[in-house]
Sequence to fold (165 residues):
Amino acid sequence: MWRKIAEKFEKYPSQIAVVREFLRLGISVRNGKAFCDKIELIPAKIGEAIGVDRKVVVSAIQNIERDPELREVFANLKPVANITEIARYLGFGVLEVYAESSKVGIVAGVAGALAREGISIRYILAEDPEISVESKMTVVTNTKIPGKVVEEILKVDGVKKVIIS
Fold:
């Protein structure tokens, strides 16, 4: 999908920035407008947050809606609450796993290591490597994560770095 988006917007780098944020945040496009679920968002405020003019936001929305495939994809995007920043305050463990995006089985390897220690996963977010700068997976667990689990996770094929907080 990202290849199609990159081709469609290759002449409009500012619009690509808008589309990337829409995908990252789950902002949908319907009837010429941008939405966070059912809440309509104002192009001027979107542009301000992204660092582009509101006209760029409006043009990106129009370009999305002109393409049937992109219109279908963006009409069905949903926002998801990212609880990683508040997890510490709730007493949960947070694990960030940086890995090679092309490797298969990283999520299974991390989940298996946690399961063997009896640690339950509350939330997991694997960022799309085509949208994010780094390929990162964030896992929020019911309890703090002991160091020995980190050692096991580092043995998973493709894992480069692990941070617990």
Observations:
- Residues 84 and 140 are 7 Å apart (CA to CA).
- The chain has a mean pLDDT of 93.
- The longest strand covers residues 93-99.
- The chain has two domains: 2-75, 87-164.
